[in-house]
Design a protein that fits this description.
single chain, 520 residues, mainly alpha, 29 helices
Length: 520
């Protein structure tokens, strides 16, 4: 009561050392003292002896609590059940008391501690529900039931319990925990907008918590709000200048800026993380990809190699080095590295990357097998469909190619290459209206792509709509002026339109450009 906890602790230890003589008149006190001194077995033995002569609910509950401290949760559950039996025998119906509610709550905690089986969470939920039936405003029961629902992936019920907790007059600590847990649940559902709102609310309650700002930054990154992500990671680093993950995450957000300045800032962050911890594999891998973006393939290869030396089981490092080897033209080394990665783990991304390497090696059948296996593992991996479609296109299996491009676009509607390729495929399948629609979509997605205008010009030429074809090919040449093939196409079109002089000038320009290329 005087808050002199050190003195209180000293006195309790002194009493424990005095032995059993001091406790003959109070075995409950003896058990409490032994438990405080971490002598749980002695405390349990004392209470079991007492229960043999005096089996009351309160003693069973105390025994269960001490067994929980001793990590003997199964024994604790049995003790709590015995307490409920005695309470139940005192009336025809289980009494609606706080005592019964507490027992169910303690049993639920025991089940939650036994995380090895799904059934334990369900048992915990049952007991916590009984607790709530007996005490409608038991905050800890709602909180722990929400966690159990979360663990068994019953997200709807977990969200409901978290919502109730925020409506109840919960403590500041509980509200903060609820906001963070609910945000993590939203992240698991890939609902980053709602997760972001909860993390922001949590940051108001705990503005000195760098981990919360890290979580906010990750959500912003997922929502492609890269500047906001950088600001949040920076705030976290102000609170904790040695936060390695924040440097790496901020570097990745800088990389998404899509310009050299962003890449340079990213490199500084990755180097800072490595300065703080030279064995930080994550930072080395990100630096490897950063150097790759700058076209410094050998330096990138060095970083991936060091990462592998630090952690020989890091499949991401093998994957990164495989891609760099491919870019340097060493397909065999790339194939070896991607296989090393696949020995460590199997994923749609790794299989798709191996498929690409097989394509470069000319093994198209092996590539298709990799893409199909990637799709079977993860039917939502758009790149596998896109690459498989390209192989179908190569083999002139245009119907299959169109189908796979469509699947890729269902998963990734902003893939302009898939839209353009489907437009070309539909042109070859004589699906003219579908092709026109795809060309329009491709132009909306990538208005400065010469390839889109060039291929639509080809479509208009086959339809003998020469004016439209001439307009598109001229637009393509304004974007990409030194292309011999485009000049030849425009010459063909202008010839059909009767513009002989303009056509001859284009043919001459095409020949001139081609001669320059051949002379290089």
């Amino acid at each position: 009561e005087m808050k002199e906890y050190k003195l209180a602790s000293f006195c309790i230890y002194q009493v424990a050392e005095m032995g059993e003589v001091s406790f003959k008149t109070s075995p409950v006190q003896q058990a409490l003292v032994q438990s405080f001194c971490q002598n749980h077995n002695e405390a349990i033995a004392c209470l079991q002896e007492l229960i043999a002569n005096q089996p009351t609910p309160s003693i069973f509950v105390l025994l269960g609590k001490i067994q929980m401290k001793a990590k003997k949760t199964k024994d604790a559950v049995e003790s709590f059940r015995e307490a409920l039996k005695i309470l139940n025998s005192s009336a025809k119906k289980l009494p609606n008391t706080i005592e019964a509610a507490e027992i169910y709550y303690l049993m639920a905690l025991c089940y939650m501690d036994q995380v090895s089986l799904l059934q334990t969470y369900k048992n915990a939920i049952d007991d916590l529900t009984k607790t709530i039936d007996l005490d409608k405003i038991c905050i800890l029961a709602y909180y722990n039931r929400a966690i159990c629902y979360h663990q068994i992936k019953d997200f709807k019920k977990a969200l409901k319990d978290y919502g109730i907790l925020l409506l109840l007059e919960s403590s500041k600590e509980i509200v903060l925990a609820v906001l963070i847990n609910r945000a993590l649940l939203y992240v698991e559902l890939e609902d980053y907008s709602n997760a972001l709102e909860d993390f922001k609310e949590a940051s108001l309650s705990d503005p000195r918590n760098s981990e919360i700002y890290q979580a906010i930054g990750i959500c912003c990154h997922r929502l492609e709000q890269f500047e906001e992500a950088v600001n949040s990671f920076t705030q976290g680093l102000k609170l904790d200048p040695f936060f390695l993950d924040a440097y790496v995450a901020r570097g990745n957000s800088y990389m998404e800026y899509g310009h050299e300045t962003g890449n340079t800032k990213a490199q500084k962050d990755f180097l800072k993380a490595m300065h703080l911890n030279p064995k930080c594999v994550k930072a080395r891998i990100c630096l490897g990809y950063n150097l790759q973006a700058f076209g410094k393939f050998q330096k990138a290869w060095n970083q991936f190699t060091v990462a592998i030396d630090i952690d020989p089981k890091c499949h991401v490092a093998y994957d990164g080095r495989a891609v760099v080897c491919l870019q340097m033209g060493d397909t065999f080394a790339a194939f070896q590295d991607i296989n090393a990665a696949l020995k460590l783990t199997t994923s749609a991304q790794l299989l798709t990357n191996r498929g690409v390497i097989n394509q470069f090696m000319g093994h198209l059948n092996c590539s298709m097998k990799d893409y199909q296996q990637a799709i079977s593992i993860n039917p939502g991996y758009a790149l596998a469909y896109f690459n498989a479609a390209n192989i179908y296109f190569h083999h002139r299996q245009f119907a299959q190619a169109s189908s796979y491009y469509s699947k890729a676009l269902q998963l990734d509607p902003r893939n302009e290459s898939a839209v353009l390729n489907r437009a070309i495929t539909n042109t070859l399948l004589q699906k003219i209206e579908e092709a026109k629609e795809d060309f329009e979509k491709a132009i909306c997605l990538c208005p400065f792509s010469a390839a889109v205008y060039f291929n639509r010009a080809n479509l208009y030429r086959t339809l003998k709509q020469y004016e439209l074809a001439e307009k598109d090919i001229s637009t393509a040449l304004s974007i990409q002026p030194n292309d011999a093939l485009m000049y030849k196409l425009r010459a063909d079109v202008r010839g059909k339109m009767g513009f002989s002089e303009e056509a001859i000038a284009d043919y001459k320009q095409a020949i001139s450009i081609q001669e320059m290329i051949d002379a290089m």
